[in-house]
Structures are given as structure tokens and as C-alpha cells.
Amino acid sequence: MIFGCLLNLIFLLLAAKKVLIVYAHQSSGSFNAAAKDAAVEVLTTQGYTVDISDLYAMNFKATATAEDIKGDVKEAEHFRYSKETRLAWEDGRLSEDITKEQTKLTEADLIIFQFPMYWFSVPGILKGWIDRVLTSGFAFTQEKLYSLGIFKDKKAMLSFTTGSPESMFSPTGINGDMNVTLWPLQNGILHYCGFQVLAPQIFWAPSSASPEARTSMLEGWRTRLQGLLEEKPLSFIPLDGFDEKGFQLKPHVHEEHASKEFGLTVGVHLGKPIPPNCMMKAGS
Amino acid sequence: MIFGCLLNLIFLLLAAKKVLIVYAHQSSGSFNAAAKDAAVEVLTTQGYTVDISDLYAMNFKATATAEDIKGDVKEAEHFRYSKETRLAWEDGRLSEDITKEQTKLTEADLIIFQFPMYWFSVPGILKGWIDRVLTSGFAFTQEKLYSLGIFKDKKAMLSFTTGSPESMFSPTGINGDMNVTLWPLQNGILHYCGFQVLAPQIFWAPSSASPEARTSMLEGWRTRLQGLLEEKPLSFIPLDGFDEKGFQLKPHVHEEHASKEFGLTVGVHLGKPIPPNCMMKAGS
Fold it and tell me: How large is the average pLDDT for residues B44-65?
């Protein structure tokens, strides 16, 4: 009986979906910490295994240097980070801190990046994680990218706070449409590696909000977390919509879309208006 | 006579315009190094004073932490980087490495950021420079931003290499329109601080190019450098086009633009097609 229970438990643990939270805030008293803690609590309660990479606490190295490679580099005089780390990944010569993160990523079904937006992007320490962990060969190859990317069976999402209110990030606001700002991050990093990209969780200017409004934002996040892994991802163009040589949209896709009001995505807009909120909501 | 010459020389040195190159490549044998060296040579020959922040050689710290502040922080439990560094800047308590970069920036008439594009953005080490050096108060305030920004009498530009060819970054290419990828960098960082943004210098995939093509790219850059400081900057919307409360486009600007084919900028697109190449060429 006890043996059976143990077997069941082991089975459940092995079968449990895993979530990795890559977390980049300096303070445990921050709104970002509260958002991360809420995710841990709700997801764990639902039976998911949650791992955290707390980048500041880990003193995570943010710079892409030759120290990321164990032993000699191939071309010291003409050091090229992408090429050298690809070779090092093939030979198992990447530094321990990178390898550990790659293992966490490989085991995860969903990656949540939790951070305060700095300068319309991720903080330097998180950009360092992206630059160093998503090694060529490990995270993408020339053939395995976008919808055929290496992580196509995984999900990923951005969860972040802004300093400015939502209105400033509208298509008539001074910061410009948030969908544009999200394109390089969600298409160029997450979707590039194949991730199914879940809609971002944007906490608009919590530092200027009332305690009640902050609580309400966190409650909204908790509610969303309960169905997060079943959410439909954002739409991108399948890789076979582009020719293999120049990665240009195939003429038939272009023609099929000719009469449509909006472009296909923010970046592949075909000279048409950007599809509204396509980087913010699934099915847009 | 000699005294007169000396006075003239001192005058010329004091009057000489200054250029700061913020350079982020690991190797002196790289194409980025050659682009940086070409800038130093051509600009110096023309009488400009050129300063370089060689971020990897400086082992520049890329992470925004409490160590950036000398002495105690105000709220250790609820550390907020932006707020704490603003106070530290006001009190002259920012770390030496930040202060040094801020002095270089203050003295410069033009800043050139020279880097390889990593993941549709700047490398982590350069993002760290941006996060840490462009301190609230020093680089922007709530009133002094965009066209009324603190650095409105300075110019800035991105000069970078890509891994992918130009065609992949077209509005029908798989990476999407490069103008979209440039928006958060050029509007959200450079123009946000007031800089007049010169058109980017994009070296398309030099690592896949022939030696002749690489030489030709550098020659093009040398030619451009000769007139660089006289170039007309990219177009953005003046700050007074937005209302002061919500930073929304004023109704009369919206109306005046209603019949136009394209939006005003990539981000402030008003639901219209993006103005072609507006982040790549002045006057677009």
C-alpha cells in the first residue's frame, strides 16, 4: 500500500509540468517579487513544479565573454562569441552557470520572464541571460528556428511592470504602441527559438498606483495563472510561409493576404496597418 | 609668434567637437573593431576629439544594483533602482564608473554606439551601460524628455552589425521590418533623452560577406563619417504635439494627419501603415 502510494507520488512528480521563472528584480519587497511569489504559489498549488532563476540573487553574469568557455577558444585573435559558444556547447565546454540554466530551460514546459521594463526592454542582467543561455546549437540552428524552432513544444511569456501608464503606450501615446516595443522581444527572442509565446502580463505603472490597485493587479494575475498553461499562444507566421533561401514571404501567402486590411504581424506588415494588439492578445 | 600659435592650438582643442564611441565587442580583430577604428581615424583627422568607452576592456558592470550607490540606500527593504539612483545622482553618490561615463557623455557632442546586434537589440553589456549611465535626473526628468530632453543639443546614433542579411529584415522578411526593431532603441532610449538621432549605420551580415564586400562596407562608413556631424537627424514628433497630462497626441495633430497615407512614426502609427524607413533614413 505504502509502496503503491510512493510509486504514485514518484509518477506524479515525474509527470508534473515544470515552470521556470527567470526573475530580475533586486528587492524582495518589490511588486515584481510579489508577482513572482504569486506565480510560485498558484502554480505549485495546481501541481506544477516551479523553478526560479533569481538573477540578482545569483549575481548572474550579464556579459558575453571568453570566460563563458572552458579551456581555450578556437580563434583568440578573432574571437566571435556566437561561433565559439556554439563549438563549446557541442563539446560540453560551456561554463557551469550557463549549463545550469540550459538544463533548467530544457526541463521546463513554460518559462516566465518576470522583470521591470528598463528602457523599453529587459534589464541588462536579463539581456545577459538571454545572450548567454540561448546558445547557437542549443536554442536555434539555421534550420530550426521560428515555428520549427528547438523549443516549439515549450511555452514562454513576458510578465513585466512599466514605469508609464498604458495610455502612453497606445498608438497615439508618446511612447508609441506597446505592440511595436514587444515585437523584437517576443518575435526576435522567444518565437525565434520556437517558443509558443503566451500573451504578456503587463502591470501598468504599479509604482504610481494605489495599494488597492496594486492588489487588484495581483489578483488579476492570480486568476490568469490558474489557466495559464492552457492558454492559446500569440499568432506568428509559420516558417513554411517563407521561402527557404532568402526567408522572404512566399508569393502565394502575400497574394492570399493582399485584400486584407492589416499586415500579418507587427514586423511582417506588408506596408499595411499593424494588426491591432497582435503582440498583446491571442487571436488578435 | 610661438605664443600665438599655442593660443590658437589651445583654442582649437577647446573648441573641437567631441565624439564618444561606446563600443561593445570582445575582439580587436572584429569587424566592429574595424568600424570603431575607422571612426576614430576619420573623425580625428577632421579635428574632432574622440573618446572611447571600450566596455569589455573596461570590464564594465552590466547589472543595476545597490552597489551603484555610495553609502546607504534610502529604502533597503524596498530598493527601487530608478528612485535610489536619482537620489544618489542628486547627492553625488553614484559609483565612480557611472560618474566617469556621465562626464564623458556630458562633454560629447555626438555619441556613437558601436556593437554587434544580439537578439534584435544591444548586447547585455551595452544594455547595462544604458540602464546604469542614463540615470533619472541626469538623462531625463518627467518634464525634460523626448524633443525637450536633456540631451537635445547632442546627437547620437547606432552603428551595428547584423547576423542576418538585409532581406530578412524587410517588411516581407522573416525577421520583420528593421524599422520596427529599431523603434524601442532609437525612440525609447536615444530620443527619449532628447538626442537628435542620426540614421543608423547598419553593416548587414559582414561575417557572411567576402573580404571585398567587408572592405567596401567600411569604405562606405569612412565616406559617411566625413559629413556625419552635419547630417540631418531622423524625424520624431515634437513633445508639444502631445498633451501634458496623458501624453496623448493632441486632437489637432491627429486631425491634420487624418488624410495622410502613413502614420506619424513607427510607434505613433494611428492605425495607419508605418512610414517606410522612417527609423533608417532622415526625411523619410
Answer: 98
